[in-house]
Specification:
The chain has a domain at 28-126: Jelly Rolls (Sandwich), CATH 2.60.120. It is 3% helix and 33% strand. The protein has one helix at 28-31; strands spanning 38-44, 47-55, 70-76, 79-82, 88-91, 96-99, 106-108, 115-121, 129-130, 136-137.
Length: 149
């Protein structure tokens, strides 16, 4: 029986690609820069992906939130996520955390070794993050644990 006779549309053939493919394959452990901060792998008007780290033992970012949902996957070491209610969750390699937009968190390295994460967020890289007082937190203040955000 044909798909038209069952009331279904026939399968569609996708249009030919007009631009070159821009797919990237990365090894986050091998490709992680040996400095703090982000290495952006993909950035568009509605999504970006990055390598976070390596973060050394004792590194601790500010408590902050974003305006879009995001995920982190731990690929090396142990990364602790602290939350405003005093609870925390520790990711080990292979684990993932999903953080909805507007939820506050802080990433800390409480272990004895560096950690590396892969993150993605449903907004462009340049969108700001915000402290609990709704002040913008930027890369220059990211690792200043003593700052009053």
């Amino acid at each position: 029986m044909s798909s038209e006779r069952r009331g279904l549309m026939p399968p569609l053939t996708p249009p030919p690609r007009e631009t070159a493919m821009t797919i990237s394959v990365v090894d986050p452990i091998k490709d992680a820069r040996k400095q703090k901060g982000k290495q952006v792998l993909h950035d568009s008007s509605n999504y970006h992906v990055w390598i976070h780290g390596p973060d050394a033992p004792g590194d601790k970012g500010p408590m902050h939130k974003h305006t879009a949902d995001q995920t982190f996957i731990c690929v090396k070491g142990d990364a602790t996520y602290n939350f405003p209610d005093g609870t925390s969750a520790t990711l080990t390699p292979g684990m993932m955390i999903v953080i909805p937009k507007g939820d506050f968190y802080q990433i800390e390295n409480k272990s004895a070794a560096d950690f590396i994460l892969v993150g993605s967020r449903a907004e462009p890289y340049k969108n700001p993050r915000f402290s609990e007082g709704d002040k913008v937190v930027d890369e220059t203040t990211r690792f200043d644990a003593g700052a009053n955000y």
